[in-house]
Amino acid sequence: TALPLAQIELFKQGLNQKLEEEQEKLYQMWLDWSRKSSEESGDASCTEPEEMESLALLMAQSITQQLQITCCKVVSAIQGLPSSLQDKVKQSFGTTEELHASFSVANSFQDLSSSVLTQSKRKLAVIQEYMEELLDYLKNNIPLSWVVGPFSPREEEE
């Protein structure tokens, strides 16, 4: 069972790496914006609320897009697992689609309904809970195909 556990750990590391890469991109965007703002104003402490809001919205769009991509990949990889887990992951994918759609069409936070803003945090917590449940299941119930792989007939040597 070492190989599948290693695969699960690699998946978790890959997911964490993706999140770190996104955080780095967002941080770089923040640095670029801060530099531009300080060059234009001559004062690094001067920030426009509209620009802060724009950057925050851009971050939300980027994060929800990455979540959507990740959930889509997970959905395609879990066929054969219990339907309850598959349903939760598919629900997570649907939720990320909704969140990304909501944030991607907004030009400002005023374009978002108060329910979208208040429910986003709760929805993200549910997605995280479902993904942790999936990883816990995989740690304790490794699919046989992950252990032995697909069987195929060997060609006879001549």
Describe the structure using short key phrases:
158 residues, mainly alpha, Four Helix Bundle (Hemerythrin (Met), subunit A), single chain, 0% strand, 5 helices
CATH homologous group name: Flagellar protein FliS
Tell the overall outline: globular
Give the helices and strands as they follow along the chain: HHHHH
Structural class: mainly alpha
Would you tell me which CATH topology applies? Four Helix Bundle (Hemerythrin (Met), subunit A)
Radius of gyration: 21 Å
Unreliable stretches, pLDDT < 50, 5 or more residues? 149-158
CATH class: Mainly Alpha
The share of residues in extended strands comes to under 5%
DSSP, total strands: 0
* Tally of alpha and pi helices: 5
Number of domains: 1
The end-to-end span amounts to 35 Å
Task: Please name the CATH architecture.
Answer: Up-down Bundle
Overall mean confidence score, pLDDT: 75
What does this structure look like?
The chain is an all-alpha fold. It has one domain (2-38, 50-140): Flagellar protein FliS (Four Helix Bundle (Hemerythrin (Met), subunit A)). Helix content is 78%, strand content 0%. It has helices at residues 2-41, 49-77, 83-104, 114-140, 144-148. Helix 1 (2-41) packs antiparallel against helix 2. The longest helix has 40 residues, at 2-41. It is globular and about 55 Å long. Residues 149-158 have low confidence and may be disordered. It comes from Galbula dea. One of its GO terms (biological process) is lipid storage.
